[in-house]
Amino acid sequence: MSDDRPDAGKPANAGGRPTPPDPDLFAASPVDAGAASTPPEPAVPAAGEPAAAEAASADPMSPSFTPPRPAHPLDSYPRVESIPDFPHREPRRGGPDDADPRAWREFRPDDEKPLFPTGDGEMNFFQHLEELRVVLMRSVMAIAIGAVGGWWLAPIVLEDAIRRTVKVVTVLSPFEAFNERLKLMVILGSMIALPIVLWQVWSFVVPGLLKRERSWILPLVMSSVVLFAAGAAAAYFYVVPLVVHVLEGFVVPGMLTQIRLSFLLDFTYNLALACGILAQLPLVTMLLTAIGLVTPGFLLRQWRYALVAIFLLTALITPGDVVSAQLVMGVPMTALYFLSVALSALVAKKRTEADEAWMNEGEEKTRAPS
């Protein structure tokens, strides 16, 4: 019987094992070629083959001809293979519970060290909204707690305000006294909780500020709060009683003065707000001088127009007796204007020194050998 095996008739190797069959007999068909798991290794060209293969690929009549890809306008731009990580980003050293997502943004190249080194990642829009919601809730809770103390302080403030102005007020509604006490309670509660509210706002804003911005924004805000409080206090203790006294001079015999509590308190609130805003004049002048919009010389040259505007404003606020109203209020406002001019000159001097130091540093770097 004949042996039809492919290895029949072939000599065996040493050890009695038959010779391996020819690989061509088991070559994969074109259908099975796609299922091959291991790609064939590329053939290594001989010494003289690269030039011939290159010439064949350049010949349009050659089967191995590859047409060149047309040029694209974006080919002239440099290709970015990968985006490097920020060198100043601090690695996360805390767990998910104590990690602050704003931490890595807090550390900027001009900082010495990060304020919150345990966080990683940047907050998205909805995370900012969530943080803003937390800040608002904490601020409202602080005001509510302060309003509890304001409820007990409101009668004392009401009695003092009435005693300083008209001595006696009229209440024309059963709810008027309660409503005005409630309104004053909220105002006093806001004043008591103001430090906590400012701290909450500062904690929300500070991660987006650089070190240089943080160094001047905080003193600016604190100075504004102090000036506003000083202006409101001046209105309560000095301006409101003076204005009420001046306006009482228009009462002639036959008139009966009956001032409502709500009108008196609204008048006091408006004047306190106006005086608090006017007290910001030195701060605004310093800020405008720092950014270069005004100069001390310009403010000093316009002092005549400033005096006219000040006395016109005092005439609108306190019509009547010139000596007791306009001069008494105009003199402090005039002093405030010249104080603003002096502070503007101080800021301008520091700005000039900083510009000169920057120019000298630039010249030294230019003259330095490379």
Summarize the structure.
With 370 residues, the chain is mostly helical. 59% of the residues lie in helices and 0% in strands.
Task: Describe the fold and architecture.
It contains twelve helices and no strands. It is mainly α. Helix 4 packs across helix 5 (about 175-190) and helix 9 (about 280-290) runs parallel beside helix 12 (about 320-365). The longest helix has about 45 residues, at about 320-365. The radius of gyration is 42 Å and the shape is extended.
Count of DSSP-assigned helices: 12
Rg, nearest Å: 42 Å
Protein structure class: mainly alpha
Number of strands: 0
- What's the pLDDT, averaged over the residues? 75
Strand content: under 5%
Largest sheet: none
Outline type: extended
Distance between the termini: 95 Å
Order of helices and strands: HHHHHHHHHHHH
Query: Helical proportion?
Result: 55-70%
Oligomeric state of shown chains: single chain
Please mark out the parts with pLDDT under 50 across 5 or more consecutive residues, or reply none: 30-37, 80-100, 103-107, 110-120
